[in-house]
Amino acid sequence: MSPNPDVAATPRYVLIDGENRLGPIVASDESGMRFSPLYGFSDRQSFDTFCNASELALKPYPLVMGYLRAQLETGNGPGLIVVDAAGPRQTHLQAATLEAVLESQEKKLPQVPLSHGLAFDEAARAYRSINLGQEATPSAESRLP
Length: 145
Hints:
Elements: E1 7-9, E2 13-17, E3 20-21, E4 38-41, H1 44-53, E5 58-62, H2 65-74, E6 80-83, E7 92-97, H3 98-106, E8 111-113, E9 116-121, E10 126-131
Parallel strand pairs: 4-6
Antiparallel strand pairs: 1-8, 2-3, 2-4, 2-5, 6-7, 7-9, 9-10
Helix pairs in contact: 2-3
């Protein structure tokens, strides 16, 4: 049996650089929609792999349900959690929505459905979000918190 490409292990940790949670820079889509992704990790091996590929002094921090709920309440655009990235320069990433991660954690599910892909756009020096099953569109760069 092969792994299902539409799901990933539920993330339980994020990485902290100083006091800030770490996520990739994502360009706004053509409608101006901004995404605020964070790198999320399902286990120690996954975040160790990422940290070994990074030059930053990163620390793992629990991805807690209270934080996810607070982010959903702020309504700063659709939040994404990039799941188990191998490093900060990976060209293609897979992500789940904050809602899906929260639901998986609340229900203690081992997997979360993936809803977005992120493809690095060298010209924009940022990732472009792709709803899985849709084509990517070029867009303007924006730095997200």
